[in-house]
Amino acid sequence: METLIDIVLLSFLVFTALAVAKMNDLFAVVMLSGIYSLLSASWFLDLDAVDVAFTEASVGAGISTLLFLASLKLVGRYEKRTRYRPLLALGVVLVTGTLLIYGTLDMPHFGLADTPVHQHVAPRYLNDSMAEVGVPNVVTSVLASYRGYDTLGETLVIFTAGIGVTSLLRVSRRTKQEEQRNVPADMQQQIILRVVAKWMLPLIMIFAFYVQFHGDYGPGGGFQAGVIFAAGVILYTMLYGLSTTQEVFRQELLELLAAAGVLIYGGVGIVCMILGGNFLDYNVLRHDPVHGQHLGILLVELGVGITVATVMITIFFKFTWRTVKHKYIIK
Amino acid sequence: MNIIGLYNYWIVVVLMMIGFYVVIAHENLIKKLVGLSIFQTSVFFFYISTGKISGATAPILDSRYNLYSNPLPHVLILTAIVVGIATTALGLALVVRIQESYGSIEEHEIQSQDTKDQMESQLEAYGFKKKHILSIQNLDE
Amino acid sequence: MFAATALALLVVMALALARAFLGPTLYDRILAVNNFGTKTVLLLAVMDFLSGRPDFLDIAIVYALINFISVIGVLRFFEYALQKTVEQGE
Amino acid sequence: MVRDVISWIFLLSGSFFCLTGGIGLIRFPEFFSRIHAASLTDTLGASLILIGLMFQAGISLTLAKLIMILIFSLLAGTTASHAMAKAALKSGMCPLDQIDRGRQPTIKSYRDQDIT
């Protein structure tokens, strides 16, 4: 049954990708790419990658679609037809594809247990992580502890992307404060939607915290929780307007928190060094190494969650502010 | 089992090539970004495919199971997805700025504007006046 | 029995996918995406039981939430676009 | 055993309703009849399948999560359908039978490429 679902979902993915390539209505393309990520998350779950499915579910289907839609609003909806027939591109693609498929013929078959991939460090993670880290979710223990340095880098990349978007789509402070008060909230006619969303918002926030702190025992963790929290704030922004949301989530606060998340992560590493361990070696945080690991993972995941949530909210605010500006101010 | 032994990898190649085609053959920058994300997810599929073991379960330890899939690809791809959305957001911000300063996000229109500007500035450097070089505006037709 | 349900859901997903490809108006596509999303939630739940580890239902919950948010997002941004084109037309 | 049988009945009837909804989504002529088919069967089918799964779960954390999914899908599904239909109506689309009775949609035709 797993194999059947695998085959069917992969075929759906190919059809969706072909439709994406063919359509020239970009709105439809973006919605199909939403379907594409729904499909890929189901496929990840089918292949036992629960944490990846979790991330793809919250990131791909939610935030990514919304960002694409917001920027479509700014750049127009239709793609112009290309004037020439892209035979050269087709040729390049066909040749590359054939070569890659020829390359796969030497690959070990799908699902075998004795392939080189499974021989290197994976057995150590699976067999010893319970004694060394004491967290049942191996993905979390590898992410936050064994490969913590790597994850610090990823968090920094996200932080940097946040800075990049902020500086690319910046608004001068004066216009912002003057004009923002006059911007009406969107979707005012959708009363039922607003009421239901108000009901759902606290549930979303609580669920985000559950994902954040339950990540040691089940699928979840800082990345997913941050994105879910951001999705809740984004829902509120879409229904009640940017200025209402910014009463709470001020720009200065968001910038401060985004930096604070990275600082927490790096700070844990420095504290470990001060206490006599290596950078991000949590064993020294407490007397019992396993307790130290628990504390370290908790703090590090918290830092990741804060950074991811605030960066996603910042990015969405920036795009929304552009659309609002185009609609109400540049006339 | 052996019939689909390489099926996953072939689908990965097909998806990657569709994404590649969209990136190199389409001129609209948003479409290119969508193609790029298809390309990106095909890489994710490849990693996760290699991590799967038939009959295994998800790598969350439980006393009832003793065969787990490989957790390492999951860790790499999990962070890659979030980084992917961050870079996509950066790309979209660039596209928005391009639209604001060029008035178009079609690649050939942007390039023809660039060439025109370049030629104008070169001609001005040779001492031509602005009014003389109006005629090159139709050059890209 | 879970397998039968999963198969039925896959068939419905195929139908919704077809509607998303065909769907003459944009609203048809939004409807197809929404329907596809709810079916995905169900499929994820059923797949958890199928694999015998129903403690992964969190993913289905996230889906139910995110699907709602993205449909609202599409409606919001599309409404906007429509207003803009009408304004330009006048 | 009895619990299994009950849960199978729920699961099968839920799958049946989902299938009818999917067929309606393809076969019906225009948006409003399609949303009728899809959203009604969606609510019923999803609830039935989730209740069927609840019988399998027994009293556990899984049951609580299933109930949460049920609440979310009931809230979100119905609200989203309402919002979609309202947005479509406001954009000038018009149900078929209204056109038959002679009411003109504000935009020429819902099949028009302008609003697709």
Describe this protein with a few key phrases:
A: 331 residues; 2 domains; 0% strand; B: mainly alpha; Helix Hairpins; 4 helices
Question: What would you say this structure looks like, in words?
Answer:
The complex is a heterotetramer of chains A (331), B (141), C (90) and D (116). By secondary structure, chain A is an all-alpha fold. Chain A has two domains: 1-120; 140-331, no CATH class. Chain A contains 13 helices and no strands. Chain A is globular and about 65 Å long. In chain A, 51% of the residues are buried. Chain B has helices at 7-25, 29-51, 71-102, 107-125. In chain B, helix 1 packs antiparallel against helix 2 (29-51) and helix 2 runs antiparallel to helix 3. The mean pLDDT of chain B is 84. Chain D is an all-alpha fold. The termini of chain D are far apart. The chains are: A mainly alpha (331), B mainly alpha (141), C mainly alpha (90), D mainly alpha (116). Chains in contact: A-B, A-C, A-D, B-C, C-D.
Protein topology:
The complex is a heterotetramer of chains A (331), B (141), C (90) and D (116).
Chain B: H1 7-25, H2 29-51, H3 71-102, H4 107-125
Chain C: H1 2-22, H2 26-50, H3 58-89
Helix pairs in contact in C: 1-2, 2-3
Chain D: H1 2-27, H2 31-57, H3 61-90, H4 96-100
Helix pairs in contact in D: 1-2, 2-3
Oligomeric form: heterotetramer
Instruction: Say how many strands of chain D there are.
Output: 0
Tell me, briefly, the overall form of chain A: globular
As a whole number of angstroms, the C-alpha radius of gyration of chain A is: 23 Å
Estimated share of beta-strand residues of chain D: under 5%
Which secondary-structure class do the elements of chain D indicate?
mainly alpha
Please give the count of helices of chain A: 13
The CA-CA distance between the termini of chain A, in Å, is 58 Å
What is the average of the pLDDT values of chain A? 85
Order of helices and strands of chain D: HHHH
Low-confidence stretches of chain A: none
Q: What kind of sheet is the major sheet of chain A?
A: none
Number of domains of chain A: 2
Q: In terms of per-residue confidence, which ranges of chain D show pLDDT below 50 for 5 or more consecutive residues?
A: 107-116
Structural class of chain A: mainly alpha
Q: Cα distance, first to last residue of chain D?
A: 52 Å
Q: What is the rounded Rg of chain D?
A: 18 Å
